[in-house]
Specification:
The protein has 157 residues and is an alpha/beta fold. The chain has one domain: 3-Layer(bba) Sandwich (Glucose Oxidase, domain 1), CATH 3.50.30. 18% of the residues lie in helices and 34% in strands. It contains 4 helices and 12 strands. It is globular. Homotrimer.
């Protein structure tokens, strides 16, 4: 699965997320059905959702593009890996980037920050989220590789 090939083969059926993601982890490409969390500078809900079985889903997080605090660190990345998530896309920041980069995970994020987030549980899970010109709906599909992030309403592979 290459995103460039998917764009060539499916044209208007795929939507390109136009953001400059940092790519962390040893998993350089991943794809799957979408699960979502919308939260701002608070990762308690994200952690709770990632503790559920991932079953090959990709977690898509709208963190409001905050670069102030990290929504994911090495401990939550370990939860992601251990619970069978295909990867995670974060419209926001992560920390422990050196450790995450050595892990067998796929993490796309906007930036890094050493500061941890709040833990109040604010946010929503399982709702459509929008960033980078794309709406990511739970149950739709996302495809991620070195060239970028694509979303589609149906499975293309």
């Amino acid at each position: 699965m290459k995103t460039a090939d998917l764009v060539d083969a499916h044209g208007e059926a795929v939507h390109f997320c136009n953001l400059p993601f940092l790519k962390l982890g040893r998993r350089k490409s991943f794809a799957g059905p979408i699960a979502t969390v919308k939260c701002f500078e608070d990762n308690a809900l994200l952690k709770a959702e990632l503790q559920k079985p991932g079953n090959g889903h990709v977690m898509v997080v709208d963190g409001g593009a905050s670069s102030r605090v990290a929504l994911l660190g090495d401990q939550i990345a370990t939860i992601l890996k251990d619970n069978g998530w295909a990867g995670i896309i974060i419209n926001g920041s992560v920390r422990d980037s050196a450790e995450i980069n050595e892990m067998d995970v796929g993490v796309f994020c906007l930036s890094v920050s050493p500061k941890k987030s709040e833990k109040d549980g604010a946010g929503k899970a399982g709702v459509p989220v929008q960033f980078g010109g794309v709406t990511f709906a739970p149950g739709a599909y996302v495809y991620v590789d070195a060239d970028g992030v694509l979303a589609s309403s149906r499975d293309l592979c």
